[in-house]
Amino acid sequence: MKRRSEQTREEQLLLREKILGLGETSFRKSYYPELRIRLRELERFRFILDQVSVGIVIIDPRTNSIVDLNEETCRLLNKPQKELRGMRLADCLDQRSALNPEMTEIENGVAIIRDLPSADGELRTLEITMHHAIFGGEEYRIAIMRDITRQRAAEQAIIRTKDMFESVIRISAVQDAGEEEILSAALREAAALTESTHAYCAILSPDETFFTISSSSDDIPAMARLSPADRGGPWEEVIKRREPILGGRCGGICLPISEGDRVVAVITLRGKPLPYDEFDLRVATYLGEALWQIVLRYRAEERLWQLNEELERRVMERTRELANLNSELEAFTYSVSHDLRAPLRSINGFSLAIWEDFADDLPEDARLYLERIRSASERMGTLIDDLLLLSRISRAELRRQEFSLTDLAHEVIEEIMEQEPRENAHVEIEEGMVVSADRGLMRSVLMNLFSNAWKFTGKKEKTEILFRSQKNNESTTYCISDNGAGFDMAYKKKLFLPFSRLHTTEEFPGTGIGLATIARIISKHEGSIHAEGIPGQGATFYFTLGSKERTGVLQ
Amino acid sequence: MTVDTLRKFVMPEVIFGEGARMQAVRYLDNLGVAHAFIVTDPGIINAGWIREIASAAEAAGISATIFSQVSENPRTTEVDAGTSMYRENGCDGILAIGGGSPMDCAKGIAILSTNGGMIQQYEGVDQIHHMGPPLICIPTTAGSSADVSQFAILNEQEKLRKFGIISKTIIPDVTLVDPDLLSTLPEKFIGYCGFDALTHAIEAYVSTGSSSLTDLHALEAIRIIGEALPVAYHERENREAARQMMLGSLHAGLAFSNASLGLVHAMAHPLSGLYDLPHGEANSLLLPEVIRYNYLSAQARYNRIGEILGASEEDIQKNGVEAIIGVVRGLAEKVGISGSLGDRGVLRRDIRTLSDHAMVDGCIVTNPLLPDVEEVMRLYEAAL
Ligand SMILES: [Fe+2]
User: Residues A265-296: pLDDT tens digits?
Assistant: First the structure.
């Protein structure tokens, strides 16, 4: 603090002046500058409020009249400030006053006001939220207004787009229906989506001379389904211009459906209460295109189905022909074999009679010829027997039963050994083989295979025959092997064909039908057979028999 | 520097008379106050005045928060406490009821509530930049005249000093002078406060800042106080005397608030700071010596004062300043003031400090004669 001794006279005078109220800032209290500052703040705030894109309205709850409002409110309600002040909010909103009850109801809630006319003539949607507020001890209601026209429109667009996709899915899921029904269903969807009462689809004929008309309702008489395409109506116009018509002469929407450069159909929508807009056109176009794709798919499916049907019919026909042919052939074989027997028996009988009665009288040459005749006719007898067996097997029904394959094998081999005894033979048969098969047919199989084995081992010093089974997962494979003449694997496929032989009759006698018969029996059992062999060392035949369950009758 | 001819006269809106206090609610409302901060002292509360006004305010929809932690010499800490309470309660206007102390404290609170900071920052003249909230005063003592003045005197306890805040912005908006409230003062205070008011009038009258407007009030104050003070002191139930003391004090306040004061106050302030000596008592003990010192600089004016206080023309002619001092002393004795500063425990060794403080007190600059520090020291010694 300065001491007086340091304080100058000048300073003292200045101080005195201030004390007397004559200093630069020696003014008494004035609220005006402060008020001016506050006022400026308020003006600034007011300015901000006027820039906000939300309408703010202060309402006196006693009279329901507007006390204050911002600029946006004027814009939203399309009226000047002066006019709005003192008005009731409900009166500003709707001249029809139909909404007044709704407005009083909302109080603290939210109200949506639709179709409010604006300065530019468009219809607006307003969202109004009401709040309570207390200023300086007075209660007020605050209405906050937002223009949600665009938001609403966007929401509507999303909903309608979703509906549109759902419609397309529904249409494409229509099943077991004809083209006409599909079209009808699709047109109903299009009408519903665009709030139309009627929807039509006119498909242009390929020669572009007439339309085939479908409708969302069944109100078109069959007679009127066809319409000539030269009347110069809206459809012809759409086809010519290749672009949609909205309103005007068509009284709704007419739009083309094109395939490449060509307009193939026209869709017409009518009867919407409000005017059709761009969105309706988009929905109709999308639906129309989807519809056309569905129709095309339907037509393709239809064609495919017809082709299949045709093919199946032809296959069945051919199968039946083949079966006929087969049975005719078998009948022929049977009757031929059967009918050949009688003449053969005569040849045999009479040549035997010649032999017995005149053998001594015949010259040496004649006796030799006679022997040849007799041996040939015997062979022919065997051939006929085998053929008969083969054809009988083809016609026979399979009768499965469970039996011991081991026992059957012993039975067969004993029979063979009895007929053609041989020293140094070793036959080994596995014990306990039980199968489910046709015993009679299996006897033929074993007889054939064992006879072959016996036959082809005849020229060996020692005969070795082995019959055993190999279990392999579910199925069992049976093998009969010998150490006989064997065969060249190059011919293994030829082996099971009728009348094919790998050896000459002179080497080993046989008709060549045996293995074919075996193959037929095994295949009747749904089994399989094959053979392996090495020339001069032996052969092995493998066969399976299928299962009891899988017993089928081979046709 | 301008030529010394300009004079200003500023005063609050004043209502004087019995029941003036009941106008408080009307003024609060008019000033837009919704929540009044009432600054007072426990004595006033006990007397029931606060209850009366607060309930009237409530009835008018104005809330009230009452603050009564105010000492005899209001402290800066009390201003701080009051300001916090003012803010916490969201008050928007101040009503001060009481003597000089609650009113000075209320001014301090008004300053801090809008300017913030420490109240010491605003010491001196014209240091306040933002006006305070509306301030209404209802004085209950005749003397300080804080209800009309631009002064606020506060006590900074840690430094054992008093300091003044002088600004036209702290002149109250309204003062409601209601003689009904005066009856509650103890006898001793009537004397001291009366003498404080008398000193205000005398110093304003001889001030170099005086003017015709202030003279009118100063002389009227001296006349009224000279007559009424002894009666009021002796007859505490005398309502007319009390009423006159209020009126005299009001006049004195109007005079000194515009003409300012002089050496008595400049020297009295340090005494109250250092010894907690009542302001009026310090004034009364210093007044005679200062009159003696100033006399020749404002002889005619002092003579006029003497005349009003009852000194005869011959006495003044013959004895000069002693005649004036005589009537002043006589009046002091009538209201129980006697003795010297020494009797009140003022020590010789403190005189230098006291003088230093007095030299920088704002009141000194309008004294008719500007003393140097040695002269001030001699004056303290003379009054010892
Ligand atoms: Fe004073």
Answer: 888 888 888 888 888 888 888 888 888 888 88
Question: How high is the mean pLDDT of chain A?
Answer: 82
Q: Which domain holds residue A120?
A: 52-147
Do A74 and A8 reside in the same domain of the chain? no
Parent domain of B224:
186-383
> Distance from the CA of B196 to the center of ligand 1, in angstroms?
5
Please give the Cα distance from A359 to A351 (Å, whole number).
10
Q: Is residue A63 part of a domain?
A: yes
Residue A356 burial (10 A CB sphere; 0-12, 13-18, 19+):
exposed
Select the more confidently predicted residue: A533 or B211: B211
Q: Which residues of B touch A136 (CB under 8 A)?
A: 34
Q: Based on the domain organization, do B167 and B190 belong to the same domain?
A: no
Are A105 and A42 found together in one domain? no
Report chain B residues whose CB lies below 8 A from the CB of A25.
126, 129
Q: Which of A58, A96, A63, A65 is nearest to A83 (CA)?
A: A65
Note whether A4 contacts B360, CB cutoff 8 Å: yes
Beta bridge partners of A226: A212
Whether B8 is in a domain gets the answer: no
> Could you tell me if the ipTM is greater than 0.90?
no
Q: Which residues of B touch A7 (CB under 8 A)?
A: 359-360
Domain final residue pick, B126, B146, B181: B181
Binding-site residues on chain A for chain B (CB distance < 8 A): 1-5, 7, 10, 12-31, 33-34, 136-137
B108 Cβ contact list (under 8 Å, min separation 6): B74, B76, B79, B82, B83, B119, B152, B154, B165
Whether residue B6 is contained in a domain is answered as: no
Look at residue A533 and tell me whether its pLDDT is greater than 90: no
**Of the ranges A104-118, B158-172, B276-290, which one carries the lowest mean pLDDT score?**
A104-118
**Model confidence pLDDT, tens digit, residues B328-362:** 999 999 998 888 999 988 999 999 999 998 998 88
Give B370 Cα–ligand 1 centroid separation in angstroms. Answer: 19
If one compares A505 and B331, the residue with the highest pLDDT of the two is B331
Q: Which 3-state string (H, E, C) describes B372-383?
A: CHHHHHHHHHHH
How is residue B310 annotated by DSSP? T
Query: Ligand 1 centroid to B265 CA: how many Å?
Result: 6
Q: Which of A6-15, B198-207, B214-223 has the lowest mean pLDDT?
A: A6-15
The residue ranking higher by pLDDT, B46 or A504, is B46
CA dist A52 and A40 (Å) reads 19
The Cα B75–Cα B72 span in angstroms is 9
Measured in angstroms, the CA of A8 and the nearest CA of chain B are apart by 11
- Residue B187 above 50 pLDDT? yes
For residues B304 and B174, state if they share a domain.
Answer: no
In chain A, residues with a C-beta closer than 8 Å to the C-beta of B133 are none
CB-nearest partner of B362 from A10, A15, A27 = A15
Return the closest-CA partner of residue A143 out of A73, A84, A192: A73
B296 inside 8 A of chain A by CB: no
What are the DSSP calls for B29-65, one per residue? HHTT-SEEEEE--HHHHHHTHHHHHHHHHHHTT-EEE
Give the pLDDT of residue B276. 78
- Nearest Cα of chain A lies from the Cα of B131 at a distance, in angstroms, of 6
Q: Identify the residue whose tokens are 């002693």.
A: B322
| Same domain, residue pair B272 and B236 | yes
Question: Rounded to whole angstroms, what are the CA distances from B187 to A103, A498, B336?
Answer: 71, 159, 9
Residues of A in contact with B125 (CB under 8 A): 15, 18-19, 23, 26
Strand partners, A402: A436
Query: CA of A7: which chain B residue's CA is closest?
Result: B360
Q: A190-200, pLDDT tens digit by residue?
A: 888 888 888 88
In this predicted structure, the answer to whether residue A150 has a pLDDT above a threshold of 80 is yes
Domain assignment of residue A313, yes or no: no
